[in-house]
Structures are given as structure tokens and as C-alpha cells.
TrEMBL record:
Similarity remark: Belongs to the D-isomer specific 2-hydroxyacid dehydrogenase family.
Keyword Oxidoreductase: yes
SMART domains listed in its UniProt record: AdoHcyase_NAD
Organism, as annotated: Gossypium arboreum
Signal sequence range: none
Protein's recorded name: D-3-phosphoglycerate dehydrogenase
PANTHER family, sorted: D-3-PHOSPHOGLYCERATE DEHYDROGENASE 3, CHLOROPLASTIC (PTHR42938:SF5), FORMATE DEHYDROGENASE 1 (PTHR42938)
Compartments, record wording: Plastid, Chloroplast
Length: 602
């Protein structure tokens, strides 16, 4: 049976008091500034004040830079955070330091394993990999601990592609071997006769950013380029004159093979005795991806047998490789010490890119380069940004309306949009609603990375519904509605006719607005604090409440009234910039026509 998500039980007024509401043992964070006000009136009159605030840094965050980073990146980091540059840390030293750090930046030489995340005590919020590959980071552990992992996938793309082409040409013309021979006082022109690239077939295995750039350059050298990548779109390959083929066809027909895939369980030792046996005799192999994708012992056997004529390697399964490595010492192997991204331009570019990603993540901004969260293109992030804010605030509003002791188990989210389902990815919005629901009543930090995992752990079921509207799909969403079922509400007017707490909102001019509470339509900007009042619909109510707030120097940013019928009942929603005092809220509650109210701080 799944555990339910419990909200705090409020026993004593705590607004402007030192007492705190008691929380269930599953949660350790306080639910601040929460109180209930009432007086001797009929049972229907209820006055409540509920607030919840997002976590924020009271001081500068600390970023641990565990491997050398370009000065431009360090400068960006130092403008926002305290930066600790500690290189060549042992695993034990890293685990000791990490509990004092909010972010960690590494290259490929530092292993960020589960022990590192456990040692952080929950403080580590982001790991930045200064480069593309992330096989040195335990993504599963990062996700479980709510730690975002970001990389820098674009800044070194050209550098890696150029190095791949450099190795390709150097291997084909025996440049490294001839250079060593001449420096040894020899002149062996006949020994180092090479092969031409023009007209030869190059198979690019892994047609991502680097692979596609290598293909472009190889086409310019007059090579016939084919590629294998199960995830690459065929139209992108065709656009640069590359044919996508099966893995077996690629390795069977290629004169040269260039590797550009990540190291995963599926690609580990992808080139082995079996695959070498399927290759064209005297094939030549370039690897600027990850050493682990090649079975290095099998490659030595293939070189000795003549199946593989030559290899050019920038990466190895163990770095640095052992000095007596048969592969490194092989006469027909050209090696470099992981120089794929090692140009001055790439180093600075990677430093800036990873620094910007880490700082943005620490600020709570959406990361387009997150690798353990849904990959969302930058243009989509920009378009969804106000809706992301709306989603989180609706979640926060909804959970604050749940009566103490009720278990939040079932949440339904409805998206109204004119766009087709395939054109609207709601994972980011669902994660932010989860964040808004869980964070105010727990000590857990929720983000896009661990939202689904955290919800599942707490027995919170979130279902989604899409309502297709007629009209122009220029805007991604018309509205978002959040419903919490099978709970009691602290504000009875927030209950829908079917018995769920229901809040709805939309984005207007880039600003999130609350547009519906229960069955009442309102219109209030979701900024600062909100006061919701259920009242008898009669003249002067707006002026009365506005005057009370004005007398206490509380600025009203927005006010809206929704009613079921004239002179019946209405809900007034008031946006305020400042947090009203206890006395001010009591005065509002004492207005005879007000039946109940709730104060919510976002």
C-alpha cells in the first residue's frame, strides 16, 4: 500500500507567534506563518491564514570546482557564488568536502558516484560536467537525491570533430609514425606509404552533434559517408548527404569507422571480437568518443590479424592507460591523451557554458542541458516559462487549501490547449505542480529531476487530462486546472460541485493569474500574497476590505470578485504586495458580510 502525503495539523495560531504546527514524522520542515482566526459567530464563519514560502539562499551558494576550468567560467561563477577550486581530490576528500557545497563541477577525471551524493546530505543541488560525456556521474543516484546534472554539449563540438578529422588524416598518412622515425634519424619513405581518403567510405557510428560535424568535414574531403544511429532523424542526415544504415551494414562496408556514441550499457565494448570479424579487411578506426566502447584486447587481436589495419585513439577505457599497454605501444596505433576538446577556444567555451548552466540551475532556472531530466529545447523553455511558474503556484495554492490531517493521494491536472497532444510536452509542467504540492509540507527539495520519483515515494498519484480547444495554437496553453480529491478544505468555497479542491489559472501578458477557485471565477495575479474571502454579495465590500488594507499600509496589487448570482454569495480574491499583520487580518475577518477567508503566501 502506498503511503499518503500528509499535511500539517494546525493546533495553535502561529502567525506572529513562536509556536510551530506539528508535522507528521515523514516531514521535518516547518509550515511557517500559519494560523487560524475565529470568533463567536455562527458555525459557518471560518477565518484562516496559511502561508508557504519557497526555499532560497540566504547566503552565497558554494561551488566546488574539482578539475581545471577556464578563467572565463570561473569569473562567471565568482560573480554569483563562493568558488572552491580543489583539484586532484581523492574520493575520500571529495566526499568530505561535498557536504559543504551546493554545486560540483568536474570534467572526465572525477568519479561522482552514489557515495558522493549520499555524503552531500541533500545539499548538493547540481553537478556540472564540463564537456559532453556523463559516464563518470551516477545519474540514478543523482536523480534519487534530487540533484540536477548538466553538461556542456555544444562548446567543444567543433573541437572534437576537428580532432577526429585530424586523427583520421594522420592515421591514413602515418604522420605520427613518420615523425618519430625522422626524429630518430631515419628516412623511411617506402615504409610509411599511406592511403587516400577521397572516394573511401566512412561510417560514422553515433550521428549526434560531433558525429554530424565529422560527417560534414569528411564530405568536404571527398569521402562517401554513411552513419548508424538509432535515434538520428533521417531528414537531418539527408540534409548533409549522409545515408543512415544499420549497424551491421555500416561496419561491413566501411573503409574507415569513426566512433561518436556515448558510453552506456548498450554501447559498452560495442566493437569486440564478433564485430571486428564482420568488418571489411584492413578497416581503419578512429575513436574520439569513449574508450569503453571498444574492447581494447579484442582490438589488439584484430590489429595483429590484419582485420584492422590501423587505429587512431584519443580515449581509453582506463585513463591514463598503463605505460606497457599493448594497444598504446602498437606500431599501427596513433594515440593522443584525450585532446578532443583541447583547443583554447573550446576550453573557454566549455567553461562559460557549464558555468552559465550551473549558475542558472542554482537560481532555479530551467536548464536546457540537463541530462537526468527531460531534455527541453531552449525555445520551448522560453515559451513555457510563465506556464511553469503558473503550474508551481497552482500546486502551492491547492495544497495550502487542504485541511490539516487530510492525506493528499490523488491529484488531477487538466491542460486546456488548442495544440495537438504531440505539440505539448507536459512533463515539465507536471514536475512543477508536484514541486508546488510537496515542498510546502515537507523538507524535500523537488525539481524536474526527481519530481516523479518523489511523488511515487510519497504515494502521490498525479493524472493528467488534455482538453483540446478550437482556435489558434499560438499560445501553448489556455489554462491549467489542479484538483485534489478525497480531502477536506480549509476554505469551503474552494471545493468544486463534485467535491474536490479546485484551482485554475492562466497566463495573461506573461504573468500567471488565478482565474477560478472552486466554482467561483476570479482574476488575480499570482504575485506576492493572496487573500480569498467568501462573502455575501453586497455593495461596498471591495471598498471596505480595501480601506482596511490601506489603513495598514498594505498595497493591493489586484482585486477581483466572482459570484454565483447578484446579491447571493461571492468570492473576492485580493493580491497584496506585503504580508498583512495579524491585526489587519482579524479586522478583515470581523467584517459582518465575510463568511470565511484564507490568506495564502506564495
Amino acid at each position: 500500500m502506498m503511503a499518503s502525503l500528509k499535511t500539517p495539523t494546525l493546533k495553535t495560531p502561529s502567525f506572529a507567534l513562536s509556536s510551530k504546527p506539528r508535522l507528521p514524522s515523514a516531514f521535518s520542515a516547518a509550515f511557517p506563518n500559519t494560523a487560524r482566526f475565529s470568533r463567536s459567530q455562527p458555525q459557518r464563519r471560518r477565518f484562516l491564514i496559511v502561508t508557504a514560502s519557497s526555499s532560497s539562499f540566504s547566503n552565497k551558494p558554494t561551488v566546488l570546482v574539482a578539475e581545471k576550468l577556464g578563467e572565463a567560467g570561473l569569473t562567471l561563477l565568482k560573480e554569483f557564488a563562493n568558488v572552491d577550486c580543489s583539484y586532484n581530490l581523492s574520493p575520500e576528500e571529495l566526499c568530505t568536502k561535498i557536504s559543504l557545497c551546493d554545486a560540483l563541477i568536474v570534467r572526465s577525471g572525477t568519479k561522482v558516484n552514489r557515495e558522493v551524493f549520499e555524503s552531500s546530505g541533500g545539499r548538493l543541488k547540481v553537478v556540472g560536467r564540463a564537456g559532453v560525456g556523463i559516464d563518470n556521474v551516477d545519474l540514478s543516484a543523482a536523480t534519487e537525491h534530487g540533484c540536477l546534472v548538466v553538461n556542456a554539449p555544444t562548446a567543444n563540438t567543433v573541437a572534437a570533430a576537428e580532432h577526429g578529422i585530424a586523427l583520421l588524416a594522420a592515421m591514413a598518412r602515418n604522420v605520427a609514425q613518420a615523425d618519430a622515425s625522422v626524429k630518430a634519424g631515419k628516412w623511411q619513405r617506402n615504409k610509411y606509404v599511406g592511403v587516400s581518403l577521397v572516394g573511401k567510405t566512412l561510417a560514422v557510428l553515433g550521428f549526434g552533434k560531433v558525429g554530424s560535424e565529422v560527417a560534414r568535414r569528411a564530405k568536404g574531403l571527398g569521402m562517401h559517408v554513411i552513419a548508424h544511429d538509432p535515434y538520428a532523424p533521417a531528414d537531418r542526415a539527408r540534409a548533409i548527404g549522409v545515408e543512415l544504415v544499420s549497424f551491421d551494414e555500416a561496419i561491413a562496408t566501411a573503409d574507415f569507422i569513426s566512433l561518436h556514441m556515448p558510453l552506456t550499457p548498450a554501447t559498452n565494448k560495442m566493437l569486440n571480437d564478433e564485430t571486428f570479424a564482420k568488418m571489411k579487411k584492413s578497416v581503419r578506426i578512429v575513436n574520439v568518443a569513449r574508450g569503453g566502447v571498444i574492447d581494447e584486447e579484442a582490438l589488439v587481436r584484430a590489429l595483429d590479424a590484419g582485420t584492422v589495419a590501423q587505429a587512431a585513439l584519443d580515449v581509453f577505457s582506463e585513463e591514463p592507460p598503463k605505460q606497457d599497454s599493448k594497444l598504446v605501444q602498437h606500431e599501427r596505433v596513433t594515440v593522443t591523451p584525450h585532446l578532443g576538446a583541447s583547443t583554447m577556444e573550446a576550453q573557454e567555451g566549455v567553461a562559460i557554458e557549464i558555468a552559465e548552466a550551473v549558475v542558472g540551475a542554482l537560481k532555479g532556472e530551467l536548464a536546457a542541458t540537463a541530462v537526468n531530466a527531460p531534455m527541453v529545447p531552449a525555445e520551448v523553455l522560453t515559451e513555457l516559462k510563465p506556464y511553469v511558474e503558473l503550474a508551481e503556484k497552482l500546486g502551492r495554492l491547492a495544497v495550502q487549501l487542504v485541511a490539516g490531517g487530510s492525506g493528499v493521494k490523488t491529484v488531477k491536472v487538466s491542460y486546456a490547449s488548442s495544440r495537438a497532444p504531440d505539440d505539448l510536452d507536459t512533463r515539465l509542467l507536471r514536475a512543477m505542480i508536484t514541486k508546488g504540492i510537496i515542498e510546502p509540507i515537507s523538507s524535500v527539495f523537488v525539481n524536474l529531476v526527481n519530481a516523479d520519483y518523489t511523488a511515487k515515494q510519497r504515494g502521490l498519484r498525479i493524472t493528467e487530462e488534455r482538453i483540446l480547444l478550437d482556435g489558434s495554437p499560438e499560445s501553448p496553453l489556455e489554462s491549467i486546472q489542479v484538483q485534489i480529491a478525497n480531502v477536506e478544505s480549509k476554505f469551503a468555497s474552494a471545493m468544486s460541485e463534485s467535491g474536490e479542491i479546485k484551482v485554475e489559472g492562466r497566463v495573461k501578458d506573461g504573468i500567471p493569474h488565478l482565474t477560478k477557485v472552486g466554482s467561483f471565477e476570479v482574476d488575480v495575479s499570482l504575485e506576492g500574497s493572496i487573500i480569498l474571502c467568501r462573502q455575501v454579495d453586497q455593495p461596498g465590500m471591495i471598498g471596505t476590505v480595501g480601506s482596511i488594507l490601506g489603513e495598514e499600509n498594505v498595497n493591493v496589487s489586484f482585486m477581483s470578485v466572482g459570484r454565483v448570482a447578484p446579491r447571493k454569495h461571492a468570492v473576492m480574491a485580493i493580491g497584496v504586495d506585503e504580508q498583512p499583520s495579524k491585526e489587519t487580518l482579524k479586522r478583515i475577518g470581523e467584517v459582518p458580510a465575510i463568511e470565511e477567508f484564507v490568506f495564502l503566501k506564495l
